[in-house]
Amino acid sequence: MDARYDLAGRTAIVTGGAGGLGRGIARALRDAGAAVELWDADPDGLAEAVAELGVAWRRVDITEPGLVEAAAAAAFAEHGRIDILVNNAGILGEVKPIWETDPRNFEAVLRVNLFGTYLVSRAVIGRMRELRSRAGIGGHPLRGHVVNIASIQGKEGMARAGAYSASKAGVIALTKSMAKETARDGIVVTAVTPAAAETAMAKQITAERRADILSRIPMGRFVEIEEVARMVLWLASGECSFSTGGIFDLSGGRATY
Ligand SMILES: NC(=O)c1ccc[n+]([C@@H]2O[C@H](COP(=O)([O-])OP(=O)(O)OC[C@H]3O[C@@H](n4cnc5c(N)ncnc54)[C@H](O)[C@@H]3O)[C@@H](O)[C@H]2O)c1
């Protein structure tokens, strides 16, 4: 590792923290000294992740406005502040051409990936704005960082993943909108657009589709969970102070913009 981060004294929430990328991101934040809370809807996954990482947790379905609001209120009350929010929870949904899909699937994917990201951001950013700021680079005030996990599919679209791709395009636009709204508040909002990683999500696809996805990545491999986590570390640290609204590539050369 070339870079080391000191996030001692910072508190972070990672949604979907029981899953593959979320767990890796939580581990990296914890190892950098942050106090981490995992938010997830899956109790078994949470229990396993907490046993592995030894961090705090909260069972939250991010699609339920009342639950999200209560969880944010409790997290701020317990820790006094939240400095870092990683909106990572997400689902893939059906892998079918649009004419074969179930409209309920489209709604469910949008509801978790986009509406859930909106709900958690709404609850956390609203409270983050009230925090006392600290001095960032050049003495400019910093209050916190929000990092959204989008996907390369949100930029390019992907056959048989219309709902997923549309939801991630929505996350990209939401990132930019929230960044403009908080630009004067010392809150930096960014997103990453990974190509495929070896997590539970990648195991939901057929070998043929997996080979197709791999063939689109010029580096010829999937992204390592640690590579995502280390980019998120930078984006969640005071080192990232002027890139608000930025969408950061993690696609092994697949992205053309
Ligand atoms: N794995 C990939 O190839 C890949 C590539 C690009 C982007 N992503 C994105 O990375 C993020 C993490 O995905 P992953 O690969 O780790 O998948 P994963 O399935 O391992 O983890 C996702 C986690 O989100 C949780 N979750 C789902 N719905 C929820 C809800 N309503 N409320 C709270 N938690 C909920 C799940 O319980 C799970 O623990 C997702 O947003 C995904 O779209 C993944």
UniProtKB/TrEMBL annotation:
One of its GO terms (biological process) is fatty acid elongation. GO terms for molecular function: oxidoreductase activity, acting on the CH-OH group of donors, NAD or NADP as acceptor. Gene3D superfamilies: NAD(P)-binding Rossmann-like Domain. InterPro entries: NAD(P)-bd_dom_sf (IPR036291), Sc_DH/Rdtase_CS (IPR020904), SDR_fam (IPR002347). It holds the Pfam family adh_short_C2. Belongs to the short-chain dehydrogenases/reductases (SDR) family. This is 3-oxoacyl-ACP reductase.
